[in-house]
Specification:
Largest sheet: 5 strands, parallel
Radius of gyration: 28 Å
């Protein structure tokens, strides 16, 4: 169920109260509150990938529980209004700490300032004992950062209200992940350990605590001081499965209301799993609703710089194999990982744990030590294609610029062939899965070669300055492989994967002929260059021709 205006989608804010008050689109996740309150554990950690609504849910929970402001009118049209826990609304001191903005040089002061803002309210209350006022005055002095600030806050709240507090901490792990491998890492970890232990371990003034982040951190000491916190993550969550991301039913309702196609939504944004349950990426679906179109929205919202620095050439090559149709990979996975493990040359276990928990791969099966992973949708295919090839070929742009400096088919084909032979040599096609085609011959998946060239062209955009680059779109009487519009020339690429006994030259000629026969690119008003590429393992042949715009081929 959703409330608000479908034409008012806020992609930048996680302010629950503002979204509801201003009538913006909000998909009802309010039963998350019931799930949190009914879970018996006093301290809970919820780990999810970026942009699935962690911050929004936390702010919604804070609005529901806080006794400082009556926010109950915001929930009148939401499912939680009919829940048995409704009586707990507006009932307790509730303190939300946002750690996502912590900086390595200011984190102590920033945490202190957040605590001070809450403490100042209670310090001025007549019910606050003098010793707590004095303690607050002492630790709030300039330059004095105590790791007990949150503990002192809960003591003050209890002294004034007689109620236990809820402590909510958003993105508890972000700063540690950001500074992995730096000299500051150990100091920051130790301080955060003291803060969290003081606030959550044996705190007699705590009702419940909730931390959210991306990673399930262990072997670290950061959380070892807590009283056996329960972690709900991609490996083991049963309580919050439908509270993050959008369900099939929620997306279906949005599609019916907007006219977007559910099958397209599923192809682009579905497939990431939590405990075996598939869900849609919230940010991507809401972006598609906002823009009335499908694109790689989640991929544009962040970078894979950490993954790039961690993964070896062998690991990247294995990941490239996942770009094949229906491809899956069986890998070893460490369920709990220390951020300190994320260093150059990290193990497969740590790398795949990061990729799964951060949402870049879907975990289809899991037996506590190994799992089956895959790239779940078109959006993440684009993310991976760009990542892999810009990492393998960092200088692709300048080299391709030289190849396409003169738009003459034969010259492009000759230079591109030499470049691809060198490029293929840095990859390993020998271990790539093959497929038995209709003619009974076994060939490497054509999509591998398609992806290499598309990734190279995508990575070289700033140098090539093409007007558009499209892949696998309907055109003429079929679907072309790649279409690039460059300086008023339409360049269409067609790929053929050859068997061992097939002639690469003949296959390349067939690829060029296929462009004309299927009328690929003929909707363009520009002259067409057809590039036929045939490949066998690391060998290739490239043929280039001008393709006539005939009235017959145009269907006129």
């Amino acid at each position: 169920m959703y409330i608000g205006n479908l034409k008012r989608v806020d992609l930048t804010s996680s302010n629950f109260a503002k979204i509801v008050k201003q009538g913006k689109l909000f998909v009802d996740k309010s039963l998350f509150i019931e799930h949190f309150l009914n879970e018996p554990q006093d301290v809970q950690i919820i780990a999810r990938q970026r942009r699935l609504g962690k911050s929004l849910n936390l702010k919604m929970l804070s609005c529901f529980l806080t006794d400082r402001e009556d926010c109950r009118p915001l929930f009148e049209n939401l499912s939680i209004r009919k829940s048995p826990v409704w009586g707990m609304a507006h009932s307790a001191p509730t303190f939300l700490f946002d750690f996502k903005g912590l900086g390595v040089d200011e984190y102590k002061r920033q945490i202190q300032n957040m605590a001070n803002e809450y403490c100042s309210v209670y310090a001025n209350d007549p019910k606050c004992p003098p010793y707590l006022k004095e303690l607050y005055t002492e630790y709030s002095a300039a330059g004095k950062w105590t790791s007990d600030a949150i503990l002192i806050l809960t003591k003050m709240a209890y002294a004034v209200t007689g109620k236990l507090s809820y402590i909510l901490i958003d993105e508890y792990d972000k700063l540690l992940i950001d500074i992995v491998g730096t000299d500051a890492y150990a100091c920051v970890r130790d301080y955060l350990t003291k803060v969290l232990s003081s606030a959550m371990k044996g705190n007699d003034y705590l009702e419940k605590g909730l931390l959210t982040g991306v990673m399930r951190i262990s072997h670290e000491g950061m959380l070892s001081g807590l009283n056996n916190p329960q972690t709900y993550d991609v490996f083991s969550d049963k309580a919050y499965v439908k509270d993050y991301g959008l369900t099939k039913e929620e997306v279906e309702e949005l599609c019916k209301a907007t006219g977007l196609k559910q099958e397209d939504m599923a192809a682009w944004y579905n497939g990431v799993r939590i405990s075996g349950y598939e869900f849609f990426n919230t940010f991507s679906v809401m972006s598609a609703v906002c823009n009335d179109s499908y694109s790689c929205y989640w991929g544009k919202s962040g970078t894979m710089d950490l993954v790039s620095s961690l993964s070896s050439a062998l690991q990247k090559n294995a990941l490239m194999g996942l770009l094949a149709p229906d491809s899956k990979l069986e890998v070893k996975i460490e369920e709990r990982v220390s951020p300190a493990a994320f260093q150059t040359g990290c193990s497969d276990e740590a790398l795949y744990s990061l990729l799964i928990q951060a949402g870049y791969l879907s975990l289809d099966a899991w037996n506590q030590t190994t799992g089956i992973v895959r790239i779940p949708n078109k959006e993440l295919e684009e993310v991976w294609r760009k990542f892999i090839f810009t990492n393998f070929f960092p200088n692709a742009g300048s080299e391709l610029q030289g190849i396409f400096r003169i738009l003459e088919p034969e010259r492009i084909a000759s230079e591109l062939e030499l470049y691809l032979l060198a490029s293929f040599d840095s990859l390993s096609f020998h271990n790539m899965p093959s497929h038995v085609y209709k003619d009974g011959k076994r060939r490497t998946y054509e999509v591998y070669y398609h992806n290499v060239v598309f990734g190279l062209l995508m990575g070289g955009r700033s140098d090539l300055k093409y007007d558009s680059l499209l892949s696998n779109r309907e055109s003429g009487d079929g679907r072309y492989d790649i279409d690039m519009e460059l300086r008023k020339i339409c360049i269409v690429f067609e790929f053929k994967s050859a068997a061992e006994d097939e002639d690469l030259m003949c296959m390349a000629v067939k690829a060029v002929d296929h462009i004309k026969e299927k009328r690929y690119g003929f909707s363009s008003e520009h002259p067409i260059i057809g590039i036929g590429i045939s490949c066998y393992k690391k060998r290739c042949k490239v043929i280039g021709r001008w393709i006539e715009h005939s009235t017959v081929n145009r269907g006129l």
